[in-house]
Amino acid sequence: MMLRLLKHGRTPAGRLSRRWMSSGSHSKTTVLSFGDGSHGALGLRSSIIGMGSDAYEPTPIPGLPPDVVTVAAGHFHSLAVTSEGHVWAWGRNNEGQLGRDPLSPRETWNEPKRVEGLNKVRVQAAFASGVISAAIGDDGSLWVWGSSKRGQLGLGQGITNAALPSKIETLSGEEIVKVSLGWGHALALAKNGNLFGWGYYADGRIGKIGRELEISPLESNGTKLGSRGESSAFEAAEKLVMEAIEKEKDMPIIWEPGSIEELHELKVADVACGLDHSLVLCRDGTLFSGGSNVYGQLGRAIEYLGMQPVNINFLPLSIASGLGNSLAVCNNPSSEPTGNATSVVSWGWNKSSQLGREGPDNIPQVVEGLVGESPVSVSGGRAHSLALTAKKELWAWGCGRNGRLGLGSSADETEPMLVEYLEGSEVIQAVAGLVWYKDPANGDRCYDPTKTSASSEDPSRQVDELLDNSI
Question: How far is CA 134 from CA 194, 226, 338, in A?
Fold first, then answer.
């Protein structure tokens, strides 16, 4: 998890209403991080036990310039953009997602360093997935680097690696303003409201782009897992993963950005990719979802593949996706469309209370604990959620493992809690990463952090976690 905040003084007018900051602002900002430090994504100095130290409270990241204007959190690494248009990166670099020499000493990966190969690009925003990074230039050009077997780079047929930032030429002529990256899939939003998708397109997670939609082997295996006993859940999941990997040797991949057919007549305002689902908010207020619906994260009863409207009774203003859950900042039903009264609405996976509320998981409902707090943005992590309010305060809820809630402990929180450590500071951005976890006692197998033993883990999520190694 990362925060960007002002330690003293007032935030410049309009800062919260803009997703990316202009280089005209000279206010000094501090970037803080907390949570799991196993891959160096926190950017904190190594301890005597190595770079995997966790942080249970927001902790300043050393070595960053004082003019960071936006930050991004991937699965295992982090990015920051300065007012001069420079990108800094730290964390995992196995796939080259830091934009530095992959042969650089592993013990230095947790140290923030400038990304190489962007000297002629003035970057205004950056984004991260598990294995790649992306940056938008001030001319709207999109640059990517890292490695993805699932076509997430978008650089063309069969291209799975980019050691240095490479421009996506297919999008030349489009002024890209936002990118969202999921598990092998990607969406890019242009200033004119056009939306483009590419990468792994199973389950309709990027809609229909010139090909028939396909069901992922993973998705079709979900019902099989539910019928097995807990004692064999992991073994069953592992077997199905191996079967799915074999089937996915001919993975359904869109190698270059393409226009999404279901949205041709609509203009898009915001996008958000979860692990294996996507949300698309149109300028007319219609919210679409596509992809996996194993946990009800699509928020709709219609099970058709591709982009379909969400059954939501609120007017969404902005959206976010966690690993298997969805979030939206909405106008309160009783307020005018242009009013300031807002609420957070959540739906989907809720094993660790990341929805922050009780009630049906698959139906979008208000997070009551934030009523009256005027949330302005939300961010979803693996099994927790964050909300930033108009008062520039941060609220966190869900799984607290490794201190990811910033509340000083590993305790889970079933409803939003104010991060009191930040009292006296003005938080201007908060982002959550999708961190994975491994259990040495189980042979370094990935596991659900909300459980304490392999036999009681959520088997359908086990499949997703194991397959992450094949990205």
Answer: 19, 37, 33
Nearest one of 447, 375, 367 to 414, comparing CA atoms: 367
> How many CB atoms sit inside 10 A of residue 231's CB?
11
pLDDT at residue number 446: 29
Paired tokens of 355: 């929805």
pLDDT in tens, 291-318: 999 999 999 987 788 999 999 999 999 9
End-to-end CA distance of the chain: give it in Å, rounded. 23
Residue 236 β-bridge partners: none
Closest CA to 345 of 281, 409, 434: 281
On the CB side of 283, CA atoms within 13 Å amount to: 11
Nearest Cα neighbor of 462 from 328, 391, 11, 454 is 454
What tokens appear for 65 in the block? 């310039």
280 near 271, Cβ under 8 Å? Answer: yes
Burial class (CB in 10 A: 0-12, 13-18, 19+), 11: middle
Adjacency order of strands within the sheet including 325-331: 315-321, 325-331, 342-348, 365-366
| Structure letter (DSSP) for residue 307 | -
Tokens at residue 423, please? 């009292």
Q: Are 274 and 187 in contact (CB under 8 A)?
A: no
What span, in angstroms and rounded, lies between the C-alpha atoms of 360 and 218?
24
For residue 155, what are its two tokens? Answer: 């650089």
Residue 440 to residue 459: CA distance in whole angstroms: 18
* Nearest of 397, 395, 393, 370 to residue 381 by alpha carbon: 397
- Predicted TM-score (pTM) of the model is 0.85
Residue ranges of the domains in the chain?
219-251+441-471
User: What six digits make up the tokens of 458?
Assistant: 């959520």
The DSSP output letter for 152 is: T
pLDDT in tens, 105-128: 999 999 999 999 999 999 999 999
| The residue count for the chain | 471
Alpha-carbon gap, residue 179 to 188, rounded angstroms: 4
- Which tokens sit at 354? 């990341």
Phi, psi at residue 468, to the nearest 5°?
-55, -30
115-151 burial, b if ≥16 CB within 10 A, otherwise e?
A: bbbbeebebbbbbbbbbbbbbbbeebbbbbbbbbbbb
The per-residue DSSP string of 310-329 comes to ---SSEEEEEEE-SSEEEEE
- Unique residue bearing structure tokens 């609220």: 395
Per the listing, tokens 């049906």 go with: 360
Single-letter code of the amino acid located at 22: S
What's the CA gap between 276 and 121, in Å, rounded?
31
